[in-house]
Write a structure and sequence with these properties.
Strand content: 5-15%
CATH class of the largest domain: Alpha Beta
Largest sheet: 8 strands, mixed
Helix content: 40-55%
Number of helices: 14
CATH architecture of the largest domain: 3-Layer(aba) Sandwich
Structural class: alpha/beta
Order of helices and strands: EHEHEEHEHEHEHEHHHHHHHH
CATH topology of the largest domain: Rossmann fold
Strand order of the largest sheet: 3-2-1-4-5-6-7-8
Number of strands: 8
CATH superfamily of the largest domain: NAD(P)-binding Rossmann-like Domain
Number of domains: 2
């Protein structure tokens, strides 16, 4: 029996994932709120706001929330600040049967100070949930759309559900490994974004490869320490969502987090121009949340303390980073 799949979000990543798995389904449904994007997808089989390439004809987009009726798989690729309201006000009222919820979104629920998978469980009635999963990994949207080989981790407490969804999503180009700690995978997918900003700051300040490797290693250790303190499986750090995405996001100027950090380092200050980008850079939103969780749980997070001083307290990057290295932490 054909599985009805709905990807929530007509942005870059939602569109890219729709294209990537379109060969596995008769129809790929995209739900969005931007009428121009929806029209472009349906009329021109493109989403020119983000990509130049053509989309497969079986990708259909809509602004009508009735699309969630009888959905089997709901993949959420929306900004974290709209995550809970979209679930509560748009999706849940239309559900007619249990569905698999796959979180593709980056970031955390900043109001509830928790992971987005926890928010799904809190908002969606239990009788309408088959499983809650997190799909994450090193994946620039444009390269996913182009069909570049890409590896993800799919995390779920129910490994049977993880293997089932994996079998539906894998293609010749999309490879998926599974992991049982959904909270661990969600946290590392959030932690790496601010750490990528720090990697960009280091690069912007003119430090070279030795120092880049130094900070990369410290970042991996800090992610492990965070998970361990929360009683989560720290092997999640070694999945595509952790080490893999830390490499991609923390070393490439194609990454918004890295490039924002690079601008901070290059300017040796947080300028108004850079501040104006805060709303679109996942890592900047997460610094305060992660710091708060770390303080509450007495977790030693020197890199996040450094990030907080650089971004929120706006301390001079060069002097602050030099002081960090002199202290060793």
């Amino acid at each position: 029996m054909e599985n009805k799949i709905v990807i929530v979000g007509s942005g870059a990543f939602g569109t890219a994932m729709a294209q990537a798995v379109s060969g596995n389904f008769d129809v790929i449904n995209i739900f969005g709120i931007d009428k121009d994007e929806i029209s472009d997808i349906n009329t021109n089989h493109r989403n020119k706001k983000y990509f130049n390439g053509k989309l497969n004809d079986n990708i259909v987009a809509t602004t009508d929330s009735k699309i969630f009726e009888d959905a089997d798989i709901i993949m959420l690729a929306i900004p974290s600040q709209f995550f809970s309201s979209t679930l509560r006000d748009v999706i849940v009222p239309k559900l007619t049967k249990p569905a698999h919820f796959v979180n593709l979104s980056k970031g955390m629920d900043q109001i509830r100070m928790q992971s987005l998978s926890t928010t799904i469980v809190e908002i969606v009635p239990a009788n309408l949930i088959k499983s809650v999963l997190k799909l994450s990994g090193p994946s620039f949207a444009v390269e996913v759309l182009e069909g570049q080989p890409t590896k993800f981790v799919l995390a779920c407490e129910d490994m049977d559900s993880a293997e089932h969804i994996k079998s539906l999503l894998e293609t010749d180009q999309i490879k998926i490994t599974t992991h049982q700690s959904i909270q661990g995978v969600e946290y590392v997918s959030v932690l790496k974004n601010p750490l990528a900003i720090l990697m960009g700051i280091i690069d912007g300040l003119g430090y070279k490869m030795n120092t880049t490797a130094f900070m990369f290693t410290e970042a991996i250790e800090e992610m492990e320490r965070f998970l361990e303190a929360l009683g989560l499986d720290k092997s999640a750090v070694w999945t595509p969502a952790g080490l893999g995405d830390m490499f991609l996001t923390g070393t490439s100027k194609k990454s918004r987090n890295f490039s924002t950090g690079f601008k901070i380092g290059k300017a040796n200050k947080v300028t108004k121009t850079i501040l104006s980008q805060f709303s679109t850079v996942e890592g900047l939103k997460s610094i305060e949340v992660i710091n708060s969780i770390a303080e509450k749980n007495n977790i030693d997070m020197p890199l996040f303390n450094l990030l907080y001083n650089l971004t929120y307290k706006r301390k001079e990057p060069k002097q602050t980073v030099e002081r960090f290295f002199r202290k060793g932490k």
